[in-house]
Design a protein that fits this description.
Elements (H helix, E strand, L loop, with lengths): L10 E6 L3 H14 L9 H4 L15 H4 L8 E7 L5 H8 L4 H5 L2 H5 L4 E2 L21 H18 L4 E6 L16 H9 L7 H11 L4 E3 L9 H9 L3 E4 L6 H14 L3 E11 L2 H6 L2 H19 L5 H4 L3 E8 L8 E9 L5 E9 L2 H21 L4 E2 L22 H15 L10 H7 L1
Helix pairs in contact: 1-4, 1-15, 7-8, 7-9, 8-10, 11-13
């Protein structure tokens, strides 16, 4: 590991998409800075990390262990298809209480989106007019790069990070235009239909050497061409799809059932939500992108082919239903049919009434701070140690993603220890036996 550069100056966090998730994140960070709330759910702010032997009693907070950018040094910006400032967008999203938002009204009104790169062919349920014009997709990418340069200069930022908080696009398969940087750039100039807006944002960020995290299930930066660019510009990337509600519960519960060798016959999941995400996912083509992301979780954790006695005939179904009255308050229902000793059947029922953007906001913060840290540690390409935050973690070619949240947490913490030259924790307990010798 090369020397970890310290934090200095300001960090600009840019979000393509300034709807419910982004405004909840921005308003939340400002609320914490003003002492109006706690950053609950954020590992970078709340979590502690063990160092050395248990008997050493070294358990600093993560933010005091690695040189993360402090909240006071963060500057916010982004793009959206609607011109509302963050205060107006947050009121419209109806996630945070208006009384709380009014205490930050002055700061939030100053944060205004830049015109977005958007094409309704890729998100059929939305239709915004606050969008960039360009003859080619390459021209649009160049305009995004100019936005980043101008934002960095006008806000006197030392560094930038981009975290995608936009909508789920229609399902796109990896194809020839994505196979190399040369072909991808040709596709940008020729307006290839297989290059979606999220890919244009990712390309622009990576071309500028700006870390890019993908919070949606879109293919986005998960293609050979952009991995090639990330390596070329020595830039970190990660994704896909913030792990918030129902999938969060799966990655907690499924490893526990597997750990006890409990059989699972079926897992039926359905969601109802009424925010912009729910409206977008009401389109079958966008839902297909999300479905692929959500369905992969159980297969990787349980590995039915390796454990046929327990999971061979597992039936896994996922549904998402748009239900406007719920707004951002997503409800996830799970019915799990399990099998115990001598194949006796049992059931688990889960009704998770969560707030989607409340769970996503701390993820945006952590990813921005960790990706900035990775850039200063000269860690380029896919950051698998950040799989902890995603439904469908991006991995190197030929490797299956790790979905077990407990293993993901160990990998994340060991990466931080490695950055600082601390011993990795294996939980073998050898320190105890060494002391007895």
């Amino acid at each position: 590991m090369s020397k970890l550069k310290p934090h200095k100056g300001k960090l600009g966090i840019l979000t393509p998409g300034m709807g419910a998730v982004a405004t909840t994140f921005i308003a939340g960070v400002i609320a914490v800075r003003k002492g109006l709330g706690q950053p609950i759910g954020s590992l970078t702010q709340m979590d502690r990390i063990r160092l050395g032997k248990r008997t050493d009693n070294r358990n600093p907070k993560v933010k005091n262990f690695v040189p993360l950018a402090p909240l006071k040094d963060i500057v916010f910006g982004g793009w959206d298809i609607f011109p509302e400032n963050v205060y107006e967008a947050a009121i419209h999203a109806n996630v945070l209480d208006k009384t709380l938002l009014n205490e930050m009204k002055k700061e939030l009104k100053k944060i205004k989106p830049m015109k977005a790169v958007f094409d309704r062919k890729y998100v059929k349920k939305l239709d915004g007019k606050y969008i960039k014009k360009g003859k080619t997709k390459m021209e649009l990418a160049e305009k995004l790069m100019k936005d980043m340069k101008d934002f960095k200069k006008s806000n006197k930022c030392d560094r930038l990070v981009v975290v995608w908080c936009g909508s789920t696009e229609v399902y796109i398969k990896d194809s020839d235009v994505h196979s190399s940087l040369k072909k991808f750039e040709k596709g940008l100039r020729n307006n290839s239909k297989l290059i979606a807006p999220s890919m244009i944002y990712a390309y622009a960020a990576l071309k500028m050497g700006v870390p890019f995290a993908n919070g949606a299930p879109n293919l986005s930066c998960d293609i050979p061409a952009l991995l090639e660019l990330a390596k070329k510009t020595q830039t970190p990337i990660c994704g896909k799809d913030f792990k918030t509600g129902q999938t969060l519960m799966k990655t907690i519960l499924a490893p526990g059932l597997k750990a006890r060798s409990i059989g699972i016959s079926g897992w039926f999941s359905t969601n109802i939500l009424g925010n912009r995400d729910g409206e977008v996912l009401d389109d079958p083509d966008s839902f297909k992108t999300k479905e692929v992301s959500k369905l992969s979780v159980l297969d990787q954790i349980l590995k039915p082919k390796e454990n046929p006695e327990l999971y061979k005939d597992l039936y896994h179904k996922v549904r998402i239903n748009y239900y406007p009255p719920h707004g951002d308050n997503k409800e996830g229902w799970d019915n799990i049919d399990i099998r115990g000793w001598l194949d006796y059947p049992m059931q688990i029922k889960i009704d998770f009434l969560c707030r989607d953007s409340i769970l996503a906001a701390p993820i945006v913060l952590d990813l921005a701070l960790f990706m900035d840290l990775a850039k200063r540690a000269n860690m380029s390409g896919i950051q698998e140690w950040l799989s902890f935050y995603f439904k469908s973690p991006q991995t190197k070619k030929g490797l299956d993603p790790m979905h077990d949240i407990f293993k993901q947490k160990i990998k994340l913490q060991n990466t931080l220890r490695h950055m600082k030259g601390e011993s990795l924790i294996t939980h073998l307990g050898l320190d105890y036996y060494d002391e007895k010798k």
